[in-house]
Amino acid sequence: MSYGLLVHYTTQEVLLAIFDYGAIGPGCWLTPAAYAACLMPYDLGLDSPRDACLLIDVSTIPRLWGPGTAARSQRYPWQWSGGGIEFYCQDSIPVDRVRRVLPVAPCGDRLR
Fold first, then answer.
1. Angle, alpha carbons 85-71-66 (nearest 5°)
2. Is residue 49 reached through a cis peptide bond, with omega within 30 degrees of 0 on the bond before it?
3. Which residues make Cβ contacts (< 8 Å) with residue 20, sequence separation at least 6?
4. Residue 31 DSSP class
5. What is the pLDDT of residues 70-96, one digit of tens each?
6. Which DSSP state fits 100?
7. What is the pLDDT of residues 14-44, one digit of tens each?
8. Is 32 part of any domain?
C-alpha cells in the first residue's frame, strides 16, 4: 500500500541533526494527522514535547508499518495517554522527502 504525505514531529535540536545527517532515522514514527501543539504529546503518547513538524512525502518509501495506535507515554502515562494514529518506518527517510518544516509552539503544558 502506498501513502502520500505523513507528519513527523521532532525538536529543533534533532531537526538540525536530521539535516546534517541527511536523513530521518533509521526508524521514525509518522502520523497522518496534524495535531495542535497542545494535543500532540497526549494523542501520540510522547515522552517529551516537540517544537517542529515535518511534512514528509512517503509515496516512495517501500516499507511502512501500520496504521496502528500510539501507545501511552512511558514518562507520563497517566496524562499523555496515546491513542492517535501512527505508522512506523524502520528505514531512514532521506531529507529530500521532506516537503515542509513547520514550527510548533507548545502551549502551557506544565510537563514541558
1. 40
2. no
3. none
4. B
5. 998 888 888 888 888 999 999 999 999
6. E
7. 999 999 999 999 999 999 988 777 777 788 8
8. yes
In a domain, 81, yes or no: yes
Task: Tell whether the torsion through CA atoms of 35, 24, 45 and 69 is positive or negative.
Answer: positive
Number of structural domains, the chain? 1
Question: Which residue in this structure is represented by grid cell 513527523?
Answer: 8
Alpha-carbon distance of 85 to 104, in angstroms, equals 19
Full domain range(s) for residue 36: 1-56+66-85
Dist. CA 44–CA 86, nearest whole Å: 8
Give me the amino acid identity at 44.
Answer: L
CB 86 within 8 A of CB 31: yes
Predicted pLDDT at 112? 47
20: how many CB neighbours lie within 10 A of its CB?
A: 8
Residue 38 lies in a domain: yes
Domain assignment present for 43: yes
